[in-house]
Amino acid sequence: MSGNKTALVLGSTGLVGRALVKKLLADNRYKSIVCLVRRPLPERYFDDPERKLSPIVIDFSDFQDYQGYFSVDHVYCCLGTTIKAAGSRAAFRKVDFEYVHVAAQLARAQRVKSFVWISSVGADAGSRQFYLRVKGELENAIMRMPQLNHAAAVRPSLLLGSRDETRFLEGIGQKLAPLFRKVLVGRFKKYRPAYASEVASKMIQLQRFS
Questions:
Q1: CATH code for the domain of 144
Q2: For the chain, what is the domain count?
Q3: Which pLDDT value is given to residue 176?
Q4: Would you say residue 116 lies in a domain?
Q5: CA separation (Å) from 95 to 5, 48, 154, 194?
Q6: Phi and psi (nearest 5°) for 198?
Q7: Does 64 have pLDDT greater than 80?
Q8: Host H or E run for residue 77
Q9: Whole-angstrom distance between the N-terminal and C-terminal Cα of the chain?
Q10: Residues labelled catalytic
């Protein structure tokens, strides 16, 4: 029996997004989950016996036009790419900063109860590394946004799990993950590689249910 909460997921076809949607479909506090996607979701992605899931194909270049879908309790933003996949720094920033920032603005406009997104360990607007600088600038922009209820970011290190595409460094990380997770303790614990399911669980924990 489903509960009464509603959720919107952005980035549901990515590593964390897929793990997250699977958990939300199994979470009896939710009655419906909307996923905004670029292309139709393959049926093999999710087991949805209760018919909670509503995938909606949109044009992210006109993201502002889809504000109505943000009329939910919780927004989960798993949008993200790499500079290599995006093709340029500008294209990377459009996805990892602009799209996520617009999502937070739309969530605020619809007065969602909480907004949770994926950042990165080491995110810092003053970083000399472009990736971490963009992540830090986004954190600052969202956390300083007035009237956005309960915004929270998860800051994973290297993400582990089965991807559709191969990433060289993450392939190495997968093999060394057991060692890293054992030796990175104390103040270094935040740098441990994180499995997608762990990040997804943390995102759910950060939402406001009361």
A1: 3.40.50.720
A2: 1
A3: 57
A4: yes
A5: 27, 28, 17, 22
A6: -70, -45
A7: yes
A8: strand 74-77
A9: 19
A10: 131, 135
